[in-house]
Specification:
The protein is of the alpha/beta class. It is built from 15 helices and 12 strands. Helix 4 packs parallel to helix 5, helix 7 crosses helix 10 and helix 11 crosses helix 12. The chain is globular and about 75 Å long.
Amino acid sequence: MTEPKIAIVGLGYVGLPLAAEFGKLRPVIGFDINSDRIAALRNGQDATRELTSEELTSSRHLTLTSNPDDLAQATIYIVTVPTPIDSHKRPDLTPLLRASETVGRVLKKGDIVIYESTVYPGATEEDCVPVLERTSGLSFNTDFFCGYSPERINPGDKDHRLTTITKVTAGSTPETAETVDALYRGIITAGTYKAESIRVAEAAKVIENTQRDLNIALVNELAIIFNRMGIDTEAVLKAAGTKWNFLPFRPGLVGGHCIGVDPYYLTHKAEAMGYHPQVILAGRRINDGMGAYVAGQMVKAMLKRRMLVNGARVLILGLTFKENCPDLRNTRVIDVIKELRDYGVAVDVHDPWANSAEARHEYGLDLIETPEPGTYDGVILAVAHQTYLDAGIATIQAYGSDPHVFCDLKSAFGRDESDMRL
């Protein structure tokens, strides 16, 4: 019996590894609306750096396309598009609903649509299914069925990959749930966990990152408190970490497409149900304010050295939302940049991992290729790329003038080698 053909809709950090893994075993259509992305992938070039050229080539059953008509060949559709927030921190389901329209136009009786995008509980059946029904003219759970299997991709992580992370699965009927679970069991070596409903699977995903967000918010607040006390936060965390059940979270900027976004999906749904979350939103306020806090601390450090702030030059090393990863989505380094500029500071940004065109398009930033030594009144190590660690503290300090302030935001180097850190 021929296995049903799968279509992966959206070939970003989540969709591409999934398409490549399934493509090793069975026919897969990898679809993305970005034709340039498709052309690059056909040439073995993955801008996300999640897959090597060899890994793409080994997926011999994978066909790449930007033509939505090609999706009609599939019977199982897996949607892996982004679910961002808007400028008011409200869920933006536009990419998800447009992808649902695209799938709906080719949906046939008996087909299954699986969503991996992070959403609030109920979004699959309350927001996406109506679009599928309206576009296709078919009836949910009679003509077509749905599943949900939340993505757990960690961009830049070469140890925890798609196949080695337990996959939560769910379906709109018991039979669909088993089909979806069996589908993923075929590629996930770590195993699967079948949730009792789509809403449970959606909720499980959204609280994973909400929990991390709150834990980081706690240590961020502790860092602010300890800074006022003149206590080194890293030293405190190391001491506390000697207890077996102490969680090893570290302070920092909280960005990216997951931790800094997902809590707003949950709080949006809670508020729609008439409940105003307090703890979750308090954590979000703390984390969203860390960029301004870092900039303020940098300015204070400069003033203590009697340095002129207005007109000063500061170099920021790193723009991506995390180390050793080109992902610029929702990076909170931009908050530090904006706040420093409000003080009249001229800011240069360097990042060997970031795409210059994307930085210009998303944030209006022109990245510099090579920082000029001895010219900066302040240097901030914002992202601990291995490139910077390999360069060493002497190289980084040399970018500063005499005097200058060095902020080691990630505590990548020793306490005595920086003027400030969280």
